Task: structure prediction
Amino acid sequence: MTENGLLELMPGVLATRVDDAVGWARKYSLFPYPFVTACCGMEYMSTSCSHYDLDRFGAAFPRFSPRQADLLMVVGTISHKIAPVLRRIYDQMASPKWVVAFGVCTCTGGFYDNYATVQGIDTIVPVDLYIPGCPPRPEAVLQGLMMLQAKIQSQGLEGR
Ligand code: SF4
Result:
């Protein structure tokens, strides 16, 4: 390859490197907002504690202001009454942001197939990762988090 050919390639190479670096930085600096409504919260707390150590993945420090968070962890049964609040919290988060449906209740409504329960939070907010289980085991949560990190890395600068 000639020197000119190499110079022509440089912008593309640099853009790829910046994309990789941003994706890498984002995936290891997640600030979760735990939107906890029901029993899955116990398993969420267990996953966050030292035995499973979410800190290893750069996602240990929960934020209780949506404006400071980029990972909405929806944990527990979502009723139609609380659904507008969930949507509002999502809207208040700055982009890029990601959403995890934690537990089968958030994924599909679970066994609460009734008039009061939202049958899957993806009818209210876009979901990036579904973690089924009633409740999901911490190992499943960690595996899910690693899958989400891979997705964030692949998004690079784009984000959501
Ligand atoms: S998935 Fe099971 S443990 Fe989690 S909130 Fe629903 S009923 Fe409770």
